[in-house]
Structure formats: C-alpha cells, structure tokens
Automatic annotation (TrEMBL), chains A, B:
Function of the protein: Catalyzes the oxidation of 3-carboxy-2-hydroxy-4-methylpentanoate (3-isopropylmalate) to 3-carboxy-4-methyl-2-oxopentanoate. The product decarboxylates to 4-methyl-2 oxopentanoate.
Any one Gene Ontology molecular-function term assigned to this protein's record: 3-isopropylmalate dehydrogenase activity
GO cellular component terms listed in the entry, alphabetical order: cytosol
Gene3D superfamilies according to UniProt: Isopropylmalate Dehydrogenase
Keywords: Amino-acid biosynthesis, Branched-chain amino acid biosynthesis, Cytoplasm, Leucine biosynthesis, Magnesium, Manganese, Metal-binding, NAD, Oxidoreductase
Pfam families (UniProt xref): Iso_dh (PF00180)
Pathways involved: Amino-acid biosynthesis; L-leucine biosynthesis; L-leucine from 3-methyl-2-oxobutanoate: step 3/4
GO biological process: L-leucine biosynthetic process
Name the UniProt record assigns to this protein: 3-isopropylmalate dehydrogenase
Lineage per the UniProt record: Bacteria, Pseudomonadati, Pseudomonadota, Alphaproteobacteria, Hyphomicrobiales
Record's subcellular location: Cytoplasm
Sites where the protein binds substrate: R97, R107, R135, D226
Sites annotated Important for catalysis: Y142, K193
Record field: catalytic activity: (2R,3S)-3-isopropylmalate + NAD(+) = 4-methyl-2-oxopentanoate + CO2 + NADH
Length: 365, 365
C-alpha cells in the first residue's frame, strides 16, 4: 500500500488545539484501518518566529514540498503585531501558497441544517445555503511588485501595493470554477471591479472567453464585486460557484462564511496544477476561521472546521471518498445530537470543549 | 441673501426619476420660502456619453467647480458595457471625485425603525443600527499608476492596478473620522489588510499616530478588513465610525448598506478640504444605491436615498440644519405612515410609485 505523507502545521492560537483533534483521527485510522499515514510536523507563523525568527523554516518548506498534502491550522495574533513585515506570522502562510503554487482556493459556505439558528440572518435566507467560492490564491495585490513603503522625506511616506494578473492566471482559476460548477448546480458568477480596475477588465474578458471556448454548457454571470457583496447579504442562495481574485476572494469568502453562522465549521482547500506525471495536485487544507487568540488555550475552540478540512484532504488528496463521507456524516451526526462548542451554541445552552467535540466525532466515525 | 448654487447631475438609470423628486422639493423651497437655490443641470455617465462621447464634459466639470454643491444621481448600465474604459459611465463620477478632491466619503448605514423587517438579518441584529463608514475617496487602487493592460504577446496580457497611499492622505481621512466620532458614540474602527498590504501597514501606522497626537479621547480599534466584513455581518451594532481606504470602503459600505435592508434609503456625502478663505468644503451628495437599470423608467425607484442626500446637502453645504431635520422627519413620517416603494415593501403589500413617494415627502415637509 502506498504511504500517505501528511505534513501538519498547527500554527498559532487555536491552531494546535484543533489540530490535536485531527491527530486523534489519524491515529485511529492508522491503528484500526492500517491507513498508513506518515505524519510530519512543522512550525508556521508566530510560533515558528518564536522558535527561530522566521515564520516558516526552509526545512519545513522542504517538508511541505515532499508531503502529499499539508494540513494547516491558523496563524497570527496580537503577540506578533510588531514583528517585521517579512517575518510576520502571515508570511509563512503566504510563502506556502506561493511556493507550492496553490493557485486555487476552494471555500465552501454551507449552512449546516442543525445550525441555521446560529446565523445572524433570517432562517429562510440562510437555510440550506450551499455555495462555493473559488478564490485565486497566488496572484493579485498579495504578491505583485512593487510592494513597499517609501520614505518621501518631510515626515511623508508612501505605501504601495500592486495588483497584477496575467491571462494564464485568470484562465486556470476560471477553469477550476467551471469544472467544479459542472459537479454542482452548473452556475458560475465571476466578480471583479471592471469599472475601476484594469485587472478587472482583463479578468472579465478572460473569464468570458474561457467560458465561450470550453464551458458554454455552464451558466455564467458577471457581477461587480461590491454589488456581489450586497447580493451575498441579500439573498445568498442565488449563487452556486463564485470565482474571484485573491483580495476580493478574501473579503467575499469571509462574509459568506459568516453568513452561514457556521464559521467554526467551514473547511477550505488550496490546490496547485496537476503534476504532469502523477496527476497529483499539491494541496493544503485549512479552516476558514483564523487563530482566534482571544479564546486560544481554553478548550473553547470548535475543531470541526479543522476536522472537515481533513475530510476534504481524504477526498481530494488520497481519493478516500468513502472515509471522507463517513467523517462528514460523523460531523453532521454530532450536530444533530445537539453537541455544541460555544461559538455555535444558543445563549445559555450547554456546551462541550474542543476535545469533547473531537472525541464525539471520532466515536461516530 | 446669499445665492445657493446647486448642480444637479441625474446621470443614468433611475438617477433622473429620483432626481425629479428632489427638484420638486427645491422648487417648493424657492417659491414658498425664498430659499434662493440656483439650479444648474448637467449630464454625467452613459447619458453624457450618448450626448457627446464623454462621460462628463468640460463645461459640466466647470459647473461642478463653480457650484456650492453637486447632487449626483447614479451612473452606468449594461447599455454601456462595451464602451472604452476611459469614457465608461463611471469615469465621469471618478473624475468629479478626483478633480474636486472629494477625499472624504461619508456613508451612514442606518436601519430605519419602520423598516427593520426589510433586512435579511434578524431583527435584534439590525434594529436600531446607526453606523457611519468614512471612506477615503481620491486615492488607493482607484487612481494609482500604473493602471493598464499590457500585451505580452503569445495571447497573454497583463492587467495592472496600483494601490498608493501617502501619509497626508491617511492623516486627513483619519481626522475626518475622529472628528465625526466625537459627534457620535466617540468610537472609530480602522480597517485595512496590514498583514498583506504595505499600504495597510502605513494606514495602520498613520491612523494610530493621528489618534495618539490629536484624538486620544476617541476610542480606536483596528481590524483586518476581512474580519471587519465578518463582524459587520455578525453584529454590526458593535461599530460606530468605520474608516477605511477607497476599495475596502466600497466593499464594506455596500455590505453595510445592504444589511440595513434600507438600501434605497441611504444617502452619502463626499467632501473636500475646507477652503482656506471661506471655510466652505466642496461637496457632492449621492445615494448609496446605483443606477438600477432593471427598474429604471418604470416609476418603481425609491426616491428617498436621493431626497435624504439632499437633506445632507442642506445640512452640510448650506447650514440649513432646521430644514434638513424637517426633511428627514418628513421621510420618517412617510415611512411610519406605511408608504412603501417596491424595494422596501413586504411581499404582496401595496406600494407607491417614485413620484407618489416624492409627493408624500413634500406634503409632510
Ligand atoms: C492570514 C491571511 C494572510 C489570509 C489572507 O488574507 O489570505 C487569511 O485572511 C485568509 O483568508 O486565508
Ligand atoms: C460607480 C463606481 C465607480 C463606484 C465606486 O466603485 O466607487 C460605486 O460603486 C460607489 O461605491 O460609489
């Protein structure tokens, strides 16, 4: 049997405590089912900075490169607010994305039936929501040059960031969105600000052409990103797949995630291009939520997003579809049974701890 | 008595029909109260393009410059989707903002009590909401250079936009936000992406310093813009004044406006710096909603955002505070009385037309 090489990068804040719950699952799968996962561990973010002054080490980058998949927790926190820009916690994550060329970030925004009350939106607006945001992850204003602060003298500085998109970058992310739409409701909404940004003009043009040339069976809409944000709030169920650039994807996927009331539940996956020989895609899986420093170390974190990220990993990186489905079913069962961490509990309702939630999922798995 | 010079730029879509309702109010104030408004009119956006091939003419720019205030409707629509970038409808609006140096855009997101049902959010989340987004309007990725599409050959193009902020631009918008906070709940939340953008690092630094030097009596928070979008959806009442750059302000203010369910009700104001001699600020007032081409010409548009923009104009450009309050009271009365245009009506409820709504406000004014 093939070995399955996993790199775990728990990171900061609630990253380690949620990753611990995934480690239990992996242990169980290895022991009881001989799943053969080989686990490496590494440091990223503020904890890496504290250990050796960089937000990810070359050794850990090499491990990421050698792994079949990376499981990532979360990075950042006020503790590192004043460290230098190049070694800030987020730099580790951005380097992983860029060096592994993980250009396609999939962020499902799903409202778990048992949780539609946890949303700030009205039940009929949010119930049954199941949309997928496909975010470009290695381009745009995140990585374009120049990106700098210039001293202009006289107490004046200038901050500069550059949004850059090339045709091929837009083509490949659009392709991912259209392919995924075919497995869903067959509808893509592309969002940009073509009325203000030249990269938006190009984005719109390339998505339109890619659609016409290869995916005209899929329904395609274009929306300005600000109007898209509005429509997400007004009636999110109008969408199936949303495709957008790195920065709009960051904003819109966070808004979409929060709409569901299930932020602590939502996984994400980031993929590279398929390898020419093996067909394998480099992949990193991470919860949509952040490091939540305010609740870290207290056993309050919801481990489900991290566990659901592992389920995505089973499905997409190891073709273990049955196991992925079983794990997702276990999560749904636990919720149906009324188990709640504080983030998804009704006011004054009983709650369980991070590890109790993890154990409950493991039990039903 | 001083003359009061107003330039009306109705623009496209529902712009003209909503502006018509303001014209009635101005006519009434001139005739019955000798208000002395001198009205000029001009074209902007697609209608200007149709008339003379530019999205605003030099004559109309000169009129804007000579006016005490500009009332702006809305621009854009699918009709002009394929006109050249430089003469697209939005270019007229962007030129007005830039040439008049209207750097401070004030966007209140208010939930009118009579309308809390129109929101997609739960009543307790949205009821009583009253926040103010202060958006920088003449800088950032909207205007930075280079902004272009380069042909790279081999079918590849590159789209580039540049986000640029200088210290003084951040200082002056932060100053506006802090000043306004003092007249409200005394709290400012500054939003950027300092974990990804150098302009965000500078933004954070300058806001922090401006606060420490001049406004330490105001409470100041910093939030990453993506987290800010989430928090707006989760519990918007945690905010008082939000200050952010041009692009984040565009996204966040649209999300905030839609939260209220009162999009057709929300005005905005854009100000320049006070004139050294007269103390007057250049100003442009416009509804937050867009040109809504799908409903234009049908008498379905809600004129209240446009009328409320005129109320802001009375208050801020002409110091007619009593009249502004009377007009705002008239709007509230009309709503209390149950009058609804389709956008804010319950399903199957009776609705009034644009001009009926305008007349009803005028009657109570
Ligand atoms: C941590 C940060 C760099 C990151 C981003 O902005 O991409 C995060 O917000 C995300 O969405 O994954
Ligand atoms: C019409 C468009 C250029 C404009 C913007 O992006 O600023 C609009 O969305 C707004 O928010 O006023």
């Amino acid at each position: 049997m093939a070995t399955r090489k996993l790199l775990l990068l728990p990171g900061d804040g609630i990253g380690p405590e949620t990753m611990a719950e995934v480690r239990k699952l992996i242990g169980f799968m290895n022991e009881s089912h001989g799943a053969g996962f080989e686990i490496e561990e590494g440091l990223v973010g503020g904890s890496a900075y504290d250990a050796h002054g960089k937000s990810i080490s070359e050794e850990d980058m090499a491990k990421a490169d050698a792994a079949d998949a990376v499981l990532f927790g979360a990075v950042g926190g006020p503790k590192w607010d004043s460290v230098a820009y190049d070694v800030r916690p987020e730099a580790g994550l951005l380097r992983l994305r860029k060096d592994m060329e993980l250009f396609a970030n999939l962020r499902p925004a799903i409202c778990y039936p048992a949780l539609s009350d946890a949303s700030s939106l009205k039940k009929d607006v949010i119930e049954g929501l199941d949309i997928l945001i496909v975010r470009e992850l290695t381009g745009g204003v995140y990585f374009g040059e120049p990106k700098e602060i210039i001293d202009l003298g006289n107490g004046q500085k200038r901050g500069i960031d550059t949004q850059v998109y090339d045709t091929y970058e837009i083509e490949r992310i659009a392709g991912v969105a259209f392919e995924l739409a075919r497995t869903r409701q067959n509808k893509v909404t592309s969002m940009e600000k073509r009325n203000v940004m030249k990269s938006g003009v190009l984005w719109n043009e390339v998505v339109t052409r890619t659609h016409a040339e290869k995916y005209s069976d899929v329904a395609l809409d274009h929306m300005l990103a600000d109007a898209g944000g509005m429509q997400l709030v007004r009636w999110p169920k109008q969408f199936d797949v949303i495709v957008c650039d790195n920065l709009f994807g960051d904003m819109l996927s966070d808004v979409a995630a929060m709409l569901t009331g299930s932020l602590g539940m939502l996984p994400s996956a980031s993929f590279g291009a398929p390898d020419g020989k093996t067909g394998m895609r480099k992949a990193l899986y991470e919860p949509v939520h952040g490091s939540a420093p305010d609740i870290s170390g207290k056993g309050l974190a919801n481990p489900i997003a991290m566990i659901a990220s592992f389920a995505m990993c089973l499905r997409y990186s190891f073709d273990m579809v049955k196991e992925a489905e079983m794990l997702e079913k276990a999560i749904a069962d636990v919720l149906e049974n009324g188990l709640r961490t504080t983030d998804i509990a009704a006011p004054h309702a009983e709650t369980v701890s991070t590890s109790e939630m993890g154990d409950a999922v493991l039990e039903r798995f």
